[in-house]
Amino acid sequence: MELDLDHLLDTAIHAARAGGAELNRLFRHAELDVRFKRANDLVTEADHASEEKVLGILRDAFPDHRILAEESGEGGGDGVVEWLVDPLDGTTNYAHGIPAWVVSIGARRGTELLVGVVYDPSRDDLFAARRGGGATWNGKPMRVSSHEGLDGAFLATGYPFRHRSALDRYIAMLREVLLRARGVRRFGAAALDLAWTAAGLYDGFFELRLSPWDIAAGALLIEEAGGVVSNLDGDADIFRFGNIIAGAPSVQSELRRVCHQEADENLIETLDPRPAPTA
Fold first, then answer.
1. Torsion of Cα atoms, 256 then 83 then 43 then 192, to 10°
2. pLDDT tens-digit readout, 64-118
3. What are 168-222's pLDDT values in tens digits?
4. Which DSSP symbol is given to 114?
5. In sequence order, what E strands does 97-255 have?
6. Secondary structure class of 40 (helix, strand, coil)
7. Cα 93 to Cα 30, 75, 230, distances in angstroms
8. Cα separation, 84 vs 106, whole angstroms
9. 54 and 96 in contact (C-beta within 8 Å)?
10. 83 forms bridges with which residues in the sheet?
11. Nearest CA to 211 among 226, 196, 189?
12. Are 104 and 216 in contact (CB under 8 A)?
């Protein structure tokens, strides 16, 4: 059966707005419940409230679809489509009252990304894309920047704060990038960084060891906005190890080469192995 990508996208937008409403409701709430999942990794009641809304809408619309969500893990049916959901990307910002956080929802069939939505509730900014249909920002077409090359580029990044064994290699990459870029920003929400890169606000983005729900939607936004996304080795498989380099074509190409001089996919995995799958 052929998939109705417009229906997938409309549902993702509806779910993202519903999750975002929960986040707005609880933002800067004096009695917000904040806990540690593990060292340096917060979770709040808002994460759970948003995820409950998002997953409820996705399950009602597509009961046979599989789901991989940050807080509840794997679930759903056994269909060919899998949803990747981050109900609150930028939890640490959120917990500290900093308005830099989003809802991120992507869908894929196998390795093919189908739709992606990144919603910024605090600004009511909606970034959306479907495979072959282009990318939009609040309903208007968006494109990656026209900047050429790494010299003078304006970039975004994120620190591998959960994966400190890879920190030395990341710092080596960052040093080389800083020597050539006009500026590098770190907002603490990878999905938002990717959306802003797709919109041309940033020229490029790079980060190590991200989770699938962090990057699925944003990666498609960038591709459909005319940009390029790859891992350190230049392959399209950004989900295996979670290393991503993205941006305007010539920016991404030079940025990837600089980062690859400091580490490749196998080296990062050796330094910081992914946990073995549980039975």
1. 40
2. 999 999 888 888 888 999 999 999 999 999 999 999 999 999 999 999 999 999 9
3. 999 999 999 999 999 999 999 999 999 999 999 999 999 999 999 999 999 999 9
4. E
5. 102-109, 112-120, 125-130, 135-137, 140-141, 154-157, 183-185, 204-207, 228-230, 244-247
6. coil
7. 15, 28, 27
8. 5
9. no
10. 67, 107
11. 189
12. yes
Could you give the CA distance from residue 222 to residue 189 in angstroms, rounded to a whole number? 16
Which two tokens mark 62? 């597509």
Q: How far apart are CA 265 and CA 257, in angstroms?
A: 13
C-alpha to C-alpha distance for 101 and 130, rounded to whole angstroms: 22
Residue 143 identity (one-letter amino acid): R
Q: Which element (helix H / strand E) includes 97?
A: none
* 133 Cβ contact partners less than 8 Å away, ≥ 6 residues apart: 5, 6, 9, 224
Separation between Cα atoms, residue 246 and residue 204, nearest integer Å: 6
Cα separation, 218 vs 247, whole angstroms: 11
Tokens 């975004």, residue located: 156
Q: Fill in the DSSP letter of residue 134.
A: -
Written as six digits, the tokens of 241 are: 């190890």
Q: How far apart are CA 184 and CA 258, in angstroms?
A: 15
> What residue has token string 């986040």?
23
Q: Long-range contacts: 67-75, Cβ < 8 Å, 24+?
A: 68/212, 68/213, 69/213, 70/211, 70/213, 71/43, 71/47
Q: Is 249 exposed, middle or buried (0-12, 13-18, 19+ CB in 10 A)?
A: middle
Backbone angles phi, psi at 52, to 5 degrees: -60, -45
Contact between residue 196 and residue 202 where contact means Cβ atoms under 8 Å apart: yes
Q: How far apart are CA 69 and CA 78, in angstroms?
A: 15
- Residue in the structure block whose two tokens are 């041309």: 200
Q: Which pair of tokens denotes residue 162?
A: 């959960």
Please list, residue by residue across 208-244, b when 16 or more beta carbons sit within 10 angstroms of its beta carbon and e when fewer do.
bbbbbbbbbbbbbbbbbbbbbbbbbeeeeebbebbbb
CA dist., res. 85 & res. 51, Å (int): 8
